[in-house]
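agent: user wants the full assembly modeled, not chains individually. Plan: 1) parse entity lines 2) check alphabet per entity 3) run joint structure prediction 4) return tokens. Steps 1-2 passed, two entities, 852 residues total. Proceeding.
--- entities ---
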Amino acid sequence: MKIYRANIIYTPSPKQLEIIEHGYIVVRSNGLIEGVYRELPENMDWRNQVIDFGDRLLIPAFNDLHVHAPQYRNMGLALDLELLPWLNTYTFPEEMKYRDADYARRMYRRFVHELWMQGTMRSAVFGTIHYEATRILADLFLQAGMGAYIGIVGMNRNSPEGLQNTTEEVIEGLKMLKGHLEEHGKSGLVQPIITPRFVPSCSDKMLRALGEFAQETGLPVQSHLSENRSEIDWVKQLEPEATCYGDAYNKYGLFGQTPTLMAHCCYTDGEEMELMRKNGVYVVHCPMSNSNLSSGMAPIRKFLNAGIHVALGTDVSAGHNMSMLRVMQYAIQVSKLNYAQTRGEMPFLTLSEVFYLATKAGGSFFGKVGSFEAGYEFDALLIDDSYLNYDNYSLEQRLERYIYLGDDRDIKRRYCRGEEINEPAC
Amino acid sequence: MKIYRANIIYTPSPKQLEIIEHGYIVVRSNGLIEGVYRELPENMDWRNQVIDFGDRLLIPAFNDLHVHAPQYRNMGLALDLELLPWLNTYTFPEEMKYRDADYARRMYRRFVHELWMQGTMRSAVFGTIHYEATRILADLFLQAGMGAYIGIVGMNRNSPEGLQNTTEEVIEGLKMLKGHLEEHGKSGLVQPIITPRFVPSCSDKMLRALGEFAQETGLPVQSHLSENRSEIDWVKQLEPEATCYGDAYNKYGLFGQTPTLMAHCCYTDGEEMELMRKNGVYVVHCPMSNSNLSSGMAPIRKFLNAGIHVALGTDVSAGHNMSMLRVMQYAIQVSKLNYAQTRGEMPFLTLSEVFYLATKAGGSFFGKVGSFEAGYEFDALLIDDSYLNYDNYSLEQRLERYIYLGDDRDIKRRYCRGEEINEPAC
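--- prediction returned ---
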């Protein structure tokens, strides 16, 4: 049992910012939250166990639901092209380097370190086609103690020589990764995820096999959907019998038959949107990436109104920064530009809504994660915003200023499932 | 004479990124640049004077051409409204506090310190209606040794009681500020600028008097233009005889008759655009602000194609961050969202172009500032990007990564007009 005292802030629902000034959070030894209290109950023998964080903020840790680990070296680079030429020119050549396990280890250490630095305690990660590199990545997460879904990427068409795997290889790799994680990651904090790159990269045979593997194993799925116009047109040509891009996943059982993340959805509407709602597929909104690659502005308010799950992702390296603070800022801003363009038709996202998306909404893909309600896993960040707090700011304003102005320097402690996570080697 | 050795990067023109690996820059004792050299001329007695910065980057310092000093406390706050309600709800009440000189001193010290921290060596600054507070601000710039145009804001209509001045007061204040700066700021690094808030805040009488004062003194002018749709509609009602918003300034001699900055211009087109071009009025593009207040996306490519001067501004506190790195990022990204919306009609801005806007284009308002060409004032930042430079990145890539991923931590030295600028008290 551990008891922390701080200014506690979290969002049980999108519009409900819970703020407990100098409150207490009680965490059981299994890492689950007992409760949050304004005052400790009198009859409890807890008073001498309190770890007092003073005037600091304690918030749920961030969850990045779409990020490409092997693009880490290219972060902040090569943002002068749209998606398809960007993949061919910059991204595929970089991902090819991960056949070299030493290179993978060197870069993946930096990647995991950066997640830690930015306070992202759970993530859904694309690896490459390479089993060994992806296993190294998984091991780094295990060593760090941070949660992740990690995918060996499936791609066997429209991809350069040297960056393709066969259907058999990707299934075999996923099985090995699953076995490895069952053996070495007993806590289940790190898990495999089925990861067809996107429809243009995967033959029908591969998609079908991955869908069948999902049904067999119950493993979740992640991929890309309706990111930009040229890509959507291409999918129409490649899969003429699919009624929409999403249907090209759905007909193979890769669209919510098991828990599913679909990144981007900038142009998702109509039938595709309805299918996502019905199947409980998550939209992973990556507004930083969508701006950097000139993809477009995803209609997030529409998705939320329709009751579709929405989470946030950095999409590094199409997103140029691994900070979920930045993603929250962009999510609000892009929704505001949408608002300006539609002359106020779609209300923009609020601070509390994007904080919810970055914490509880994203966390829900990992179980009871991303909130401080009783029974949730204690994933948290301790924030020292004292340099920003030089006037009479309210706690809500302090959160807002941290989100808009803060950075990795402000995070003083990080917790995942109750454990304090120390700085990983880099 | 001083000679610095470093990796020197600057943009003589928007598409020309000059990169001199381990080059030399020679700065005369008057603060002007003698030249940039790949090798020091043999016959010069300079070799023993070289200050060697090793593998660091040396770039022109940043210029923020639109920032509101008295909104510093609200930075990163209160971004849930559009322009007009935002002004009334958050901004005007904050600006009223600056009748208190102690409050002004306390906040303005932080503001000037933050400019320094972010590497912004020149800025065009809105103060408030208050002479004393604005003089304090000017003195802080003088003490710091950083360049600025500083305006006492004129506003005498549609503004709350307690935040209005008369035409006589604003002219008198400007005269006093001018006298004060002529007496105490002999170098001319800090100058007054005529600052009608915007058309809705200023009666015809005030605009006319300010225009006449501009002609008399030759002082430059700064204001706001065509920021959002409601504001533009309002100006139409207030100034029915003006042929466009810009014409409401122009007819009073406040639109390029002396050097003029107009912030925003999100909806500037047609006649207004032509008037800006003809009169040499600067567009100050504030994409961070335009996103935060749901204002819109200024058509910067169109302005550049038309040969209009464009500079960049943070517009704090409608912009939530004083880093010009962030403004550069947003300028590219907003241009890319524009590109996506117009289906590629307007090519987006490139890295070299926004770097040019943040340095030489903005600097041109201050004279020969913002480049490392011979005869330019030596305004520079020394950047240590070693933590980002862990693989074989080219110097161009290192600049790109610094712009996308860097922050104030990376700036190791700052120079303005040849002098190293030390950290101001805060």
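agent: reporting back. Chain B touches chain A through 43 residues (CB under 8 Å). Chain B has 13 helices and 17 strands.
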